[in-house]
Amino acid sequence: MPDPGDAHTRRYTRRYRHKRSWVKNLWIAAGVLMFCFPLLPFVLPLGLLTSFISFAILDETA
Predict the structure, then answer these.
(1) CB 8 within 8 A of CB 36
(2) Which residues contact 62 (CB under 8 A, 6 or more apart)?
(3) DSSP SS3 for 59
(4) CA proximity to 51, closest of 29, 19, 26, 17
(5) How far is Cα 37 from Cα 6, in angstroms, rounded to an integer?
(6) What's the domain count of the chain?
(7) Contacts of 57 (CB under 8 A, 6+ apart)
(8) pLDDT tens digits, 1-58
């Protein structure tokens, strides 16, 4: 059981773990696309977009 005074208590909630699984699946899908189309003009924007969406999903204010 996490300490209530811990700064990372939100990481132990069911809601956060669910969000983390969404992000994991998003990165797996993006990785498959990057592997199928290994072109820098495709991979770089897709990686940046996936990073942005991941941070947006895991944002603690949402």
Answers:
(1) no
(2) 56
(3) coil
(4) 26
(5) 42
(6) 1
(7) 19, 22, 23, 26
(8) 667 777 778 788 899 999 999 999 999 999 999 999 999 999 999 999 999 999 999 9
